[in-house]
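Researcher: We're teaching a course module on how sequence relates to structure. For the next exercise, students receive a sequence and then see the predicted structure as tokens, so they can try to spot secondary structure elements on their own. Here is the exercise chain.
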Amino acid sequence: MTTTPRTDAPADAPADAPADTPPDAPPATRTRTRAQAQARARRRDRRVYLRSHPLLFALLAATRRRPVRRLGRTLLVHDPAAYREALTALPLDRTAPRTTGGAARAALRGDGTVLFDQDGPDHRTDRRELAAALGTASVARLRTAWQPLLKAHLAPLNTATGTGTGTGTRTVDLVPLAQDLSGTVVRALLGCPAAPRPLASAAADAAAASVRSHLPGPRRPRAEAAAARAADRLRELLGPGADARSAMVAVAAVNTTVAALPRAVARCADAGLWDQAADPALRPALVDELLRVTAASPVLPRVAAAAGSLGGCPVRSGDRLLLVARHAADAHRSDPDARTPAAPALAHLVFGAGPHACPGAGVARALLTDVLEALAPHRPVVTRARADRRAALPGWRVLTVGTTS
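Model: And here is the predicted structure for the students to work with:
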């Protein structure tokens, strides 16, 4: 896939160039260096798609030049207006097979619904309850749980606590950090007794097994059995009385965090954006920008429940919709920049739209904000990256950052 750097910043805008760029370099040199850094960041991030979901990535790249593209009974929706319309105006079958709701209901067996498969009054009631649990007061409480964990994980980056003599490279793998942070959030939200890392591992296994069991083609009894075992293991860790909705919260929180956080930090490091991360005035916009370009859930699978139209393309009841959040948010063309950010209405499309938008968006922003604030003084670089081929969402299996003294 080809991408183009953002061109709406003036040539003499302050540059967050790599650390080896001379501070007295002329504006043209700094602009060129900044563009090269952004290109390097895009290339690395593209690897999570090419290594873990190559066929899907190729399909999205081949069809993205049209706002909406029909392939048989499947519509690929790339345009932001059509994407938003599909989520807010077109009736959707939220329990259909191979949709988010259908897969979640099948995988997280048990009493109750899983929010993704709901509509109407039940959905509004459950979503209000979950939104309240993830509101401002909850974020403040969750911060007290994850801040000590964040400090402990990043301690090796400090000269006083790093390994070696203090003159070598000190590194941290951000994937275990993301697992522990997301597991800690789930524990605090659901009051479950399990340790963060096993809980996160079980939630990741449940999501990955569910995806494999719902791949197109003939039924896969072994994959379905594996998905059932993974779901049972997660429910066991969540504790007595855990229902399907609790399991859904765990799966969604863990998998999106483990996918997004390491990718966002790698994008920040590769693009040389630590100056923006260190600036309290710019950091909130940078968080939105990094979440936009990483698009943790890049594609939302849905099924139309009634006839309609999207982007001028007729839709029939039963048509499968692949809503490409990555393209709707312009992540494939517009690089992250807190000084010239995308409009919030566009950036926030990665969290969905309308009544089914992600209620955990505020927690995601707060978590990434704290991670960037903690890392910014070190200005780490990526020292090792390996894509996760098994995960439900595109992400890194290993993402190590390091700093030298």
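Model: If you want an answer key for the exercise: The chain has one domain: 27-90+119-194+242-403. Residues 158 and 170 are 8 Å apart (CA to CA).
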